[in-house]
Automatic annotation (TrEMBL):
Protein's recorded name: Enamine deaminase RidA, house cleaning of reactive enamine intermediates, YjgF/YER057c/UK114 family
Species lineage: Bacteria, Pseudomonadati, Bacteroidota, Flavobacteriia, Flavobacteriales
Native source species: Chryseobacterium oleae
SUPFAM superfamilies, A to Z: YjgF-like (SSF55298)
GO MF annotation list: deaminase activity
Example of a GO cellular component annotation carried by this entry: cytosol
Amino acid sequence: MKRIIFSLAAFCIGCLAFSQNKDQNKIMQKTDASSVISKNPKTLFDPTPFAFSHATSHEGEGQYVFISGQSGGEDLKHHLSADFRTQVKWSLKNLETVLAEYGLGVNDVLKITILIVDHDQEKLKIWTEEMHTTWKNHTFPASTLIPVPKLALDDMQIEVDAVAFSKNKMH
């Protein structure tokens, strides 16, 4: 009798383990197809004209990529133009260059932080225009803009850091 109970218990445990494994596969299949999700609650103002989303998230397996602040420095010599728009364009281009190293693009960015020296409404307008140019689908990451009196180098006018998400690729 003990042998029958033991065999029945072992059978039940095996069935339970098998069913748990099947459920785990369903979860993995579900999450593999997910992507970056932007949310702009209807009870808050619409931030898309200002080139950001209230929040972004990612469901699924993958890795986060934390990108250091990218200045508006041009190429390897890191020349800093006196023109704010030029620095904005280069900071976004430099951000895209780092993203490309991971096989990512701007649409994989969940969050950005922008530091602007002597911020004013004209600089905000320029930043917003360039964001709309860079994020062509107008699905923007969560964003924080911080006015600052100075950055690391004397002529730096802008610095942009980011957090992106890279989905695991199936082999």
